[in-house]
Amino acid sequence: MENKAHYALIGFFVLMSFLAVIAFILWLSNAQLDQQFDEYEVSFTGPVRGLSQGSEVRFNGLKVGEVAKLGLDPEDANNVIASIQVDEQTPVDTKSYARLEPLGLTGLSYIQIFSGGEGFPLLKDLPGRGPKRIEGQMSQIETFLDDGGSVIESAANALNRVNAVLSPDAVADFHGILKNIEFITANIDSSKLDIGEFNMMIISIRKAADALALTADSLTQTSDTINTIANNDVRALLTKAEGSLRTIDGAVASFDTLAGNGDELVTDARDAINRLSNSGLTDLEETVDTIRRLVSTFSRIADSLEQNPAQFIVGTERETVELPQ
Q1: pLDDT (tens digit, 9 = 90+) per residue, 280-314?
Q2: Does the entry feature the keyword Ribosomal protein, yes or no (predicted)?
Q3: What is the residue range of 82's domain?
Q4: Is residue 10 domain-resident?
C-alpha cells in the first residue's frame, strides 16, 4: 500500500507540473494575441545589408516592433520593401522617415524610425487600404560603403597631385622662389632711409625758411621807402601792397615755426621714416628744390622793388610828377 501511495503522489506532481506549463503557454499566447500592431512598409533604395526577417524596429531608440517580411518592389527592382509590425501606440506621422542603422559590430542592422515633428497627423489615420509606406534612408556607413569606389578614386587622384607637387622640378622652382624672396628682402634692408640724411634735409628747410623771412623783411623796408617818395595814388596802392607783404611775412613766420619743430617731428615719426622708400626721398628733395626756387623768386622781386619800385607796382610808365626840390 505504501509503495502504491508513493507512486500516486509522484504522478500527481508530474500531472500538476504539466498543467502549469500548459497554462503558462496559453497565458503567453493570449498576451501576445492581445497586443495590437500596426503594419507599415518601408521602402529602401539599394541593398539592405544586415537586415533580415525578425530584425528589430525602433522608434527614437526604443524597440517597438520587428521586420515581418522583406521583398523587392514590384514597380522598381532597385528598391527593397520591408514590411514591419510596430506597436499601435507608436506615433508614426506623415512626415516620419526610417533609416537603416548597423547593430554594433555584429554585421546586423535594424530599422530606426524618426518622428517628423509635432502637429502632423498620424500615418495610420490616412484614408486608404493596405499598409502605409514610410520612406527609408541608408545610414552614413552604408552610404560610405556604396560610394567607396569613388572615394578611393578621389584619394588616388589627390595622391597623384601631391606627387606632382613634390616632384624634383617643382621643388627646384620652390627653392628658386625662396632665393628671390631672400634677395628682395636683402635689398629692402640695404635701402632703408638714413636718419642723418633726413635731419640734414630738415636743416636745409629751416635755412630756406630763414631766407624767406629775411626776404620778407627786405620787401617791407622797400615798401616803406616807396611810401615816402610816391604820390597819393601810388601811396594808397603801396599800402595795399604792404598789407599783402605782411600777410606773406606771417605765412613765412608760420613756416619758420613749422620748420623749428622739425626735430620733434623726426623723433615722433622715426618709425615711419624707416619705412620710407627711395621714391619718397626723391619727392622730398624735389620739395626742397621748389622752396629754393621760391626763395630765388622772392629775391628777384626784392631786387626789382629796390631798383625801380614804381615801375614794378604800376607797370607801364606814367606821367612823372616832379617833386619840389
Answers
A1: 556 656 665 666 666 666 666 666 666 665 555 55
A2: no
A3: 35-145
A4: no
